[in-house]
Amino acid sequence: MQLQRPSFIQEQRLKMNPQQIQSIKMMGLPIMDLREKIEEEVERNPALEVVADHTVLSLDEAYVPRKEENDYFETSSDSGFVSKGGDEESAERHKFLEGALSRPETLQEHLLWQLRLEIAEEPVRRIGERLIQNLDENGFHKEPLDALLKENNPAYIVRALAIIRSLDPVGTCTADYRESLRVQAELLPAPPPGIIEALDYLEQLERGKIAEVARKLARSEAEVLAIFEQIKELSPFPGRRFASDNTRYVVPDVQVIKKEGEFVIILNDEEIPVLGLNPFFMKISGEKGEDKSARDFVRENIKEARWFIQSINERNHTLLRVSRAIVEFQRAFFVNGPRDIAPLTLRDIAQELGLNESTISRAARGKYMQTEWGIFEIRHFFTNSISGTGSDRSRYSKEGVKEIIRELISTEGKHSSDQEIAELLARQGIPLARRTVAKYRNELDLGSSYTR
């Protein structure tokens, strides 16, 4: 007969309180996300208030006194006059706002506007509108046509495709870049003979195998070179010039400046509102009244507000510590530029500051640093050695070598092959295989020697 007996087991568990969870979440917020989080918390918690916000311009600050001699012109609908001083600044501000508030035209809007100007049957126009709305940022189909238009007249579909592909930009409404290039080549006013057939040998042309392609096309090498030059003028992704979502504006969280021979790290607190506790709530929390539920509500909100303010302070303090450590490890970068960036890992900074690697990663993620050499994501400064994963294996980092490759291509000649670049790097004491050079060149978005 088995008996069940109570027993005690001792084990360790890590349990985080709400304050620690909130602090971890705040640590990973970039400056603009932090601002949105502050706005949400101020709306939610009545015990929290904004003491100062440097990003908001008051009416008194925005007001510019007008000069009496300008009053006459202000009575007309168009004064046609801009004076020096305040009115000129006001005009410049107005011009800036007009540009800032304008929304760039999308690919779909651009194509739909042209489609409406085309003389086409109503069914063709409706199919064309569906096709345009189905395009991605490159100008290619999102959903396959057989699923999108399976119940429509095939003749109407062919007509709509032909119209859209001929609109500006030419070559949209296609399946991929190969079909787009083929459509663009067919619509050229004077296409070189053999260009359509040459599109089947793009990889060989990319590698510079002109003679091989010439034999397959039964044409001279000069003709194939002329065809290849014409192909370079085409756009493999015609819709991308309308892809405004690719443009991303970043606000640096920290700034590094050199002052009297030393580097100074400045936290961008201009974008972060200054928070404080509501005086009315503080007064109520100290009073002794009969309404215990109201007093408990006030005290709970004050406690959460203090936690929130402390979490922001901890985030900023940790970000400054991490930035100072990065500047010390990457001093050569801040003095000489991107090509001298040294190998650095999260572990290096974590050991220096006595923090966990996950904390360093969270503090660096999505945040930017403004330097003399430009604005860089903080994670950009963490880069492995070219000879291994440890930062002590080589004094050359991957990002540093990529910058050297960029300089070599721009200074030593645009037509240097990957092997020639590898030889140039070897002369500088940087042994790198040709395949690695090709990989880094692709990551820099630089074409091969035949396309540069």
UniProtKB/TrEMBL annotation:
Gene Ontology cellular component list: DNA-directed RNA polymerase complex
GO molecular function: DNA binding; DNA-binding transcription activator activity; nucleotidyltransferase activity; sigma factor activity
Residues annotated as domain RNA polymerase sigma factor 54 DNA-binding: 297-452
GO biological process, alphabetically ordered: DNA-templated transcription initiation
Keyword Transcription regulation applies: yes
Keywords: DNA-binding, DNA-directed RNA polymerase, Nucleotidyltransferase, Sigma factor, Transcription, Transcription regulation, Transferase
Record bears the keyword Nucleotidyltransferase: yes
Cited InterPro entries: RNA_pol_sigma_54, RNA_pol_sigma_54_core-bd, RNA_pol_sigma_54_DNA-bd, RpoN_core-bd_sf
Residue ranges annotated for the RNA polymerase sigma factor 54 core-binding domain, each copy included: 98-279
Database matches in Pfam families: Sigma54_AID (PF00309), Sigma54_CBD (PF04963), Sigma54_DBD (PF04552)
Family assignment from sequence similarity: Belongs to the sigma-54 factor family.
Cited NCBIfam families: rpoN_sigma
Protein name: RNA polymerase sigma-54 factor
